[in-house]
Amino acid sequence: MSQTKHQIQELLAEADAAPRRQFGQNFMIDQNLVRLVAEAAQIQPHDLVIEIGPGTGTLTEELLATGASVLAVEIDNALAKLLQSRFAERKNFALLHGDALAGKHALNPEILAAIRAAKAGRKTIRLAANLPFNIASPLVIELLIAGVDLLAFTVQKEVADRFRSAPNSKEYGVLSIMTQLLSRVEILRTLPRQAFWPMPKIDSALVRLTREDRLGTRAGEFGRFLRKIFSARRKTLKKALELAGSAPPDLPSIDFRSRPEELSPLQFEELFGQIQSQ
């Protein structure tokens, strides 16, 4: 099922398309990797599987073979036409031609509608994708907030490191805290640059996030709170809170002379809850 580099190039030529940097396109050319991504998503036939950035459809073929319903989201005009011509007759295939994000911190409404419909039908919702590098970070958080149960995807290694980074590390920040409070993070393996075409400048990683939501309906507001705090990450927590319009609460478990990057995800959750209750 999987496509070699030569086959991908032929499909792109037929579609009068080429890899576009503005869309973060790097195609998987390692057939074993394609299967690994599909297997990591642990798909069952009754599931809804969202694939963002399907490209020429090499992973799409693997996903459709599971019998699950596949919603492929492709922004590129030429690739959307290619996918439609390849899979339109497959009953478990649907194509959303557009941007997966409606804004920096908002999902495309059609994706949200598909997630809500799947939840109403008691379906498990999964993401399986070779994520476009340029939108991976905000997209993952928005999908977790929206209720996607499991995400299995490839992403730049430096982004994968941020998902599981600990306080006091240079990678630690909003992405780390949100991911760890919304899911269980697994870095399944590192992927060499040579597994993709065009070859990116750095290695990638296969990541699996299993939703374990500690935030519930507060997640969006909590994310906005974190972004305000970390915009002043070099200042003390007391000063960062004041700049964000909040007074430091009476919370003995937190040293407000420390910097934001020194607090754990659970401490931030506690701090946010205390501020909300004031």
What does this entry look like structurally?
α6 packs parallel to α8 (174-182). This protein is of the alpha/beta class and 278 residues long. It folds into two domains: 5-213, Vaccinia Virus protein VP39 (Rossmann fold); 219-277, Helicase, Ruva Protein, domain 3 (Orthogonal Bundle). The chain contains eleven helices and eleven strands.
Outline of this structure?
This protein is an alpha/beta fold and 278 residues long. It is built from eleven helices and eleven strands. It has helices spanning 5-14, 31-40, 58-64, 77-87, 109-120, 136-146, 157-164, 174-182, 219-230, 237-243, 265-277, and strands at 27-28, 48-52, 69-74, 93-97, 101-103, 106-107, 125-130, 150-156, 183-191, 196-197, 204-211.
Query: What fraction strand?
Result: 15-25%
Name the strands of the widest sheet in spatial order.
Answer: 4-3-2-7-8-11-9
Order of helices and strands: HEHEHEHEEEHEHEHHEEEHHH
The total of beta strands comes to: 11
List the topology elements.
Elements: H1 5-14, E1 27-28, H2 31-40, E2 48-52, H3 58-64, E3 69-74, H4 77-87, E4 93-97, E5 101-103, E6 106-107, H5 109-120, E7 125-130, H6 136-146, E8 150-156, H7 157-164, H8 174-182, E9 183-191, E10 196-197, E11 204-211, H9 219-230, H10 237-243, H11 265-277
Parallel strand pairs: 2-3, 2-7, 3-4, 7-8
Antiparallel strand pairs: 1-10, 5-6, 8-11, 9-11
Helix pairs in contact: 2-3, 6-8, 8-11
